[in-house]
Amino acid sequence: MIEKKFRIDFDESNVLESVTYTLVSEFNLKPNVLRADIGGDGHGFMLLSLVGEKDDMIRGIEHIRGQGFKVKELNGHIFHDYDRCWSCGACVSLCPTRSIYCVPETQEVRLNTDTCIACGSCINACSVKAIQLEL
Amino acid sequence: MSKTYDEINDKIRSGKAVVMTAEEVVDLVRQKGAEKAAEEVDVVTTGTFGAMCSSGAFINFGHSDPPIRMTGIRLNGVEAYGGLAAVDTYIGATSLIDPPGTGYGGAHVIEDLIAGKKVRLQAWGPGTDCYVRKSIDTYISLDDVNEAYIYNPRNLYQNYGVATNTSNKTLYTYMGKLLPRMKNATYSSAGALSPLINDPHLDTIGMGTRIFLAGGEGYVAWQGTQFNTSFEEVNGVPVKGSRTLAVIGDMKQMDAKYVRGLDITGYGISLAIGIGIPIPVLNADVMRRCAISDDEIYAEMVDYSLPSNRQCMQRYTYAQLRSGSIEYQGRTIRTSSLSSLSGARKVANQLKDWIEHGEFLLNKPCLELPKEGKVKPLLERGL
């Protein structure tokens, strides 16, 4: 079993397709919608975390690509510059998944990219621009 | 038991001084008592690393040929004061870049200079018989300028408030990003490590006290602005801002590791700076006060969605605040700090290291700071 995160972009032509149902029923993948956003013009994106067998995941992603969705794997989607960060902690209480935390022994602020759902709440709370989010 | 500055400095010079941080002495005093601990320990080091907006630097650029009397000055596009003599200036930490909006300001100029970077100097003058030049556009570095020293009129707030937001919208304040409906609360003091918490009535700290200032040696120059002694004390320390210090120090000694230019969303530019003060253990009373711990220091939570007259909602100890969440009327509020505890520890430990190695002697204050001080409001009135 592996877990990966994907950004799936859609538009007017495929906005009504049921992506998550297809991934569950046809590819035995377990999706978790981290974020979903759709505008009035039918354009939008969804951040999905997928858990499943590697082959299923490759076939599932190929399938939805074939339906016209733009799919991008999120790898290092959030970057925490530990040189610039001075561990003030302003971001810590904002993180909904507690992916940003103070290491108890050192009190240094660290980021767990595995559990980050790319909500972006920390970005404008950082006074030294030490966190960058790329989706 | 009592010790003098001279006795402590003799021990420092011979490499025999026993130095501990204000965190380390908490357990020692609990175990052995203040009398015994005061016999063992010579110096307690404190530290803090946080945003201190009322900061800035004096710089003398040296004279160009032909010379100019600068009246308008920009450093990397940030306005510096042009009302001093020909090539002197003061750059304030919160000064904004012109045009504003790039998240760069005076604090970043100070950080860039300390980091050894070149900074663009643009200056204009009226052109006089003695200073014929009317403008200059060049680059300077910390090595090039004659003098560059930090002079911060208000640093090291003794204690500070806890900020939360009861409104329905996110607030962007100098106390950080405050989520709606009290989802979070922020605080800023270094608590048990904070310099003025460990010497709450300034029995040892005064004008001329030698300090750690951003990786270099600095001095306490004066009481800080808005110096206030009128707040209630619990366990011997005030529960609000209270005392402050003005500090001075040579920028050329400083280390960029202890300085950060900050761009605080919705507020503006500020300077984070690491400052540590050594406290000589002159007697058991000094020792006892240095042993205060986070669970004995209180701060008051206030609602930043109120435009003025923010009353205390509840008091919390720094131990509670540091736990990650506090309770208020049955609900849980997540907490986070705005000053760096890891940075404060680095400051206190670096200062400890200097003193242990005989590289930093204590300076007896030449003047006591005021025992009383009140903050007056600004009134709006006619002549």
Descriptive account of the structure:
The complex is a heterodimer of chains A (135) and B (383). With 135 residues, chain A is α+β, with helices and mostly antiparallel strands. Chain A has two domains: 2-73, ACT domain (Alpha-Beta Plaits, 2-Layer Sandwich); 77-135, Alpha-Beta Plaits (2-Layer Sandwich). Helices cover 16% and strands 32% of the residues of chain A. In chain A, the strands form three sheets. Chain A has a four-stranded antiparallel β-sheet, covered by helices on one side. In chain A, strands 5-8 form a two-stranded antiparallel ribbon. In chain A, a hairpin with a 5-residue loop joins strand 2 and strand 3 (44-52). In chain A, helix 1 packs across helix 2. The longest helix of chain A is centred in the middle third of the chain and has 13 residues, at 54-66. Chain A is elongated and about 45 Å long. Chain A starts with a strand and ends with a strand. The mean pLDDT of chain A is 92. Chain B is an alpha+beta fold and 383 residues long. Chain B folds into two domains: 5-52 and 151-356, no CATH class; 62-145, no CATH class. Chain B has seven helices and 26 strands. Chain B is globular. The termini of chain B are far apart. The mean pLDDT of chain B is 97.
